[in-house]
Amino acid sequence: MAKTEFKSESKRLLDLMINSIYTHKEIFLREIISNASDAIDKLYYISLTDENVGINKDEFRIKLDVDKENRTITITDNGIGMDKDDLDNNLGTIANSGSFKFKQENGKSEDVDIIGQFGVGFYSAFMVADEITVQSKKYGCDQAYQWQSSGVDGYEITECDKQDVGTKIILKIKEDTEQEKYSEFLEKYKISSLVSKYSDYIRYPIKMDMEHRKMKEGTDLENPEYDMVSEEEVLNSMVPIWQRNKKDVTDEEYNDFYKQKFMDFEDPARVFANSVEGTVTYKSLLFVPARVPFNYFTKEYKKGLQLYSSGVLIMDNCSDLVPEQFAFIKGVVDSQDLSLNISREMLQHDRQLKTIAHTLEKKIKNELLAWLKDDREAYETFYGKFGKQLKYGLVADYGAHKDSVKDLVLFRSSTEKKLVTLKEYVDRMAEDQNDIYFASGENIEAIDRLPQMEYFKDKGIEVLYCGDEIDEFAIKGLNDYSGKTFKNIVNEDIEEEEKDSEENKSDEGVLTFVKDTLGMRVNEVVFSKKLKSHPVCLTAKGEISFEMEKYMAAAQPESHIRAERVLELNASHPAVTALIANMTADKEKAEKYAKILYTQAVIIAGLPVEDPSEYADLVCELMK
Ligand code: ADP
Known about the structure:
By secondary structure, the protein is α+β, with helices and mostly antiparallel strands. It contains 21 helices and 22 strands. The strands form four sheets. It has an eight-stranded mixed β-sheet with strand order 5-4-3-6-2-1-7-8, with helices on one face. A six-stranded mixed β-sheet has the order 15-14-17-16-19-18. A five-stranded mixed β-sheet has the order 9-10-13-11-12, with helices on both faces. The longest helix has 24 residues, at 351-374. The radius of gyration is 34 Å and the shape is elongated. The chain starts with 7 loop residues before the first helix and ends with a helix.
């Protein structure tokens, strides 16, 4: 029978698996056991409403067998099983596996460490086996099928005999070589220790026949003789890690659990373990990842937590449990108050679930606040990665969640030169300061050099720098903090002191002149009250700011949303005086000056120059 080839990406990864001299080979067992456990979860779930399953809860198990002579390890489960199509689809391709995508994104296919740290599921078995046979019978089907493969050249699916529903995986363990030893995986003590190390919490018993010495009948302690007997033992403790007392679990155990469960190769940045009793009772074990998942800012990323009811998985990714601003949180929630028989559709409207979601939101907020307080540095690192998400929470659902995020967001401060909270800002505001000042722009450096900043620097007034696209929307969503409203210093309506404007009055003709020269490009030309060393600056008037204009230009180019531009002139700056002088002496020159100064203001505001070649020509002419 012709072999079916693996899908092309699978082939590449498979090749990598087979040929890697890899130190974490041992994770293959954990991967296969975890698949078996998932398969049992699925059948168990069906058995709750379908009595034809005919298996009692306590009959579910994973069985391990080791045959040293034939060099095989067999893993048998009585889970849901696979039919022909499942075998073909699930074991014929790994292109959809999370780790593989990560590898593609990062473009380093030789980086085998990623594989070992969180596995590529089933395929990791090829690190230790040169032939894999899977026999499976799916629940509800009469025919069983066998999938067999010796690696890269493909696989074969044939009918086979198998009485019970479930899956049996037979690994033919590789021969030892000079560099690589595989035989230890044929030792039962080794297999048993791997189960304790990686799969202890699996909720179904993992059983293996173990040989012990047993005292021969008729002999006594004085003069003992022994028989070797074989007895089935359960290798795992079956207590889910989230059910254990926090103080009895080591950091390493939490970290290992996280990495395995959520397919990450880095330890989490923070672990929140909570046990809640009250209107609803639940245990939650939540993690803040240390790195941003590769697909995080794409539609593909699905927020959510694993939902268990008394230890039984009822939903793999329950998105209703986490609000948008905490979408990065991974973890599990286990509650005895959720009905097991509830359908997944009904779950969405479940009152208990809503209560859990509500308390979780508060818990996460408080945990993050505590983190901010007791390890600022680590929190800031986290904020660098997921801060955008928190800020997003200020606008999501029309601001419904802003109270849970407003104390978690940070902004760079002009005076402190570091990230600060809104509370810190407000607490040190001068008594006569009514507003929280912020400035938005492309990045922190550009904002710091804005002409508008001079005034605030001079006065020593703290300004929050908003270098993120979302910042302005976030602030708009927030509206105020502790009764103080936000003011954008790049907008025209901020109050400054009246600058002595005697001299300005006499030159008011320049305002009309510049406006006439620039035409539609600007909405208004005014004398600035805040400029000191810069000749000009551009401010926005009205609802739409420059950052919003830029954002809209990128998001909806056809909308042509434009901020109203106000060009501010510094009447005491030599460049502006020169312009004024030329208005009568050389009108054409004065017009050129006006255009150059306007374009400079546009550049400094970080806006696109409307006519770059005109600007280049003008500057060259001056140099002649
Ligand atoms: P992952 O577990 O990350 O989905 P795997 O490569 O480990 O990736 O497994 C691929 C798929 O094969 C699983 O999602 C599951 O549908 C199926 N599968 C693997 N092992 C079993 C099993 N023992 N019983 C039933 N289905 C299984």
